[in-house]
């Protein structure tokens, strides 16, 4: 009977072999209201999941750890996602100051795109739900552009988003939409 370490090693080898047999992602572009795979002209439909190993505690600025920083976990999970037919992950609470080359490459080789949140739960790293106008400050804008800069050159970066879970009651529905529209325009 294999030990836990042997089982993990066997899984990593199998995952590596599986991923090595898959092409990297194709370029996807917007045509009207659709996403289209450029190589085929076919409509691209996202089959995705949230990918946040460690949950919100998986983001520890200054520690060198975030959801897309552990190549071993990304390799294991990409192989499983590939088997499930997942073609897109959504990750949030990312540290733009660390290197994401390995995980981005693993997901690219597995044919999995990334949609990334520019926000985090820390002060000045997201839009303040109660007072959205106060959010547009230098720290927040620097954070937003840093995340975009950190991921924009990976071929499997499908997009970025912000303003997640801002409108969830009557008060925020009256105050937040103009700021969301400005941010995504």
Topology:
Layout: H1 4-20, E1 28-31, E2 34-37, E3 48-50, H2 71-84, E4 88-91, H3 101-109, E5 113-117, H4 138-151, E6 157-161, H5 170-175, H6 177-184
Parallel strand pairs: 3-4, 4-5, 5-6
Antiparallel strand pairs: 1-2
Provide a short characterization of the protein structure.
It contains six helices and six strands, in the order H-E-E-E-H-E-H-E-H-E-H-H. The protein is of the alpha/beta class and 185 residues long. Helix 1 (4-20) crosses helix 2 and helix 2 runs parallel beside helix 3 (101-109).
What does this structure look like?
The chain has a single domain (4-184), classed as TIM Barrel, CATH 3.20.20.80. Helix 4 (138-151) links the parallel strand 5 (113-117) and strand 6 (157-161). By secondary structure, the protein is α/β, with parallel strands linked by helices. The N and C termini lie far apart (57 Å). It is built from six helices and six strands; from the N terminus they run H-E-E-E-H-E-H-E-H-E-H-H. Helix 1 (4-20) packs across helix 2 (71-84) and helix 2 (71-84) packs parallel to helix 3. The chain has a four-stranded parallel β-sheet, covered by helices on one side. Strands 1-2 form a two-stranded antiparallel sheet.
């Amino acid at each position: 009977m294999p030990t836990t370490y042997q089982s993990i090693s066997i899984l990593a080898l199998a995952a590596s072999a599986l991923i090595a047999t898959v092409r990297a992602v194709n370029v996807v572009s917007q045509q009207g209201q659709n996403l289209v795979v450029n190589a085929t002209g076919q409509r691209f439909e996202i089959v995705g999941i949230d990918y946040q190993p460690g949950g919100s505690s998986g983001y520890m600025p200054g520690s060198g750890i975030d959801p897309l920083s552990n190549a071993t976990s990304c390799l294991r999970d990409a192989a499983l996602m590939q088997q499930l037919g997942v073609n897109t992950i959504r990750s949030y609470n990312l540290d733009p100051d660390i290197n994401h080359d390995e995980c981005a490459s693993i997901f690219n080789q597995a044919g999995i795109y990334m949609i990334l949140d520019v926000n985090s739960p820390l002060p000045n790293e997201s839009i303040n739900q109660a007072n959205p106008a106060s959010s547009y400050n230098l720290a927040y804008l620097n954070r937003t552009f840093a995340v975009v800069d950190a991921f924009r050159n990976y071929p499997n970066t499908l997009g970025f988003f912000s303003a997640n879970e801002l409108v969830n009651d009557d008060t925020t529905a009256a105050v937040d939409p103009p700021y969301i529209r400005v941010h995504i325009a």
